[in-house]
């Protein structure tokens, strides 16, 4: 290679002067920049595709209900506490007595009260007290089996006691947080969702957004829905709309505790999926 061609030659041509350029090392070095640019361009293209896909995915709308008008979601009712397990009552079987048979007195022996005295007193021997009940006097009769004798005739027709009074039943007017049997909308949760969708009016805003209103109320013993309270406000317009529909609700199936109807607190979240104008 002459001096003039050296100034216009590539470094690789100078290194591989008078050498075998068909060898792989020359080709690898010659095309290195081209392969490097291809790899960098491919990497940037892949990153751009991933960014575009993620941006489209972020714009998808969350689907709550495929229905017209306001979207309503309902939270499940809290799990009521387990019912109180009642111990089984074992009936006491009383022996049947023959009302027609003559009543036979038990053999008793007089209870001797110990008295400190100088005189000698007679105490009945232990053998004489066998099979006899302790009484106020000593008399003969049927041998005692150790049971206390009944004061009636066993037929249920005794004189009784007219002074026994039945305690008054105290009415439970408190409001329970939970009950053994929670109140239920007539027809169940699905019927309540249909009722809300039918009666709630759509509220249009300038921007698309999701609004949640949490309302608390009381289902009394008659099933009437009263005592409305907004726990989580979604705005005055949304709160008024929810209260308007809640006041139109029919009577619920009331809750019960230990077999008695009780007043129970209930909470209902209503979610509006609004659309922009």
TrEMBL record:
Per UniProt, residues of the TonB C-terminal domain are: 212-273
How would you describe this protein's topology in the membrane? Single-pass membrane protein
Outline the segment boundaries, as ranges, of region: Disordered: 135-169
TM annotation in the entry: 36-56
Q: Name one Pfam family in it.
A: TonB_C
Which top-level group of life is the source organism from?
Bacteria
Its chief place of residence is: membrane
Keywords assigned: Cell inner membrane, Cell membrane, Membrane, Protein transport, Transmembrane, Transmembrane helix, Transport
Q: Where in the cell is it found?
A: Cell inner membrane
- Residues spanning the signal sequence: none
Which PANTHER family is this protein grouped with?
Answer: PROTEIN TONB (PTHR33446:SF2), PROTEIN TONB-RELATED (PTHR33446)
Family to which the UniProt record says this protein belongs: Belongs to the TonB family.
Q: Can you name this protein?
A: TonB family protein
Q: Which organism is it from?
A: Pinibacter soli
Q: What is the lineage of its organism?
A: Bacteria, Pseudomonadati, Bacteroidota, Chitinophagia, Chitinophagales
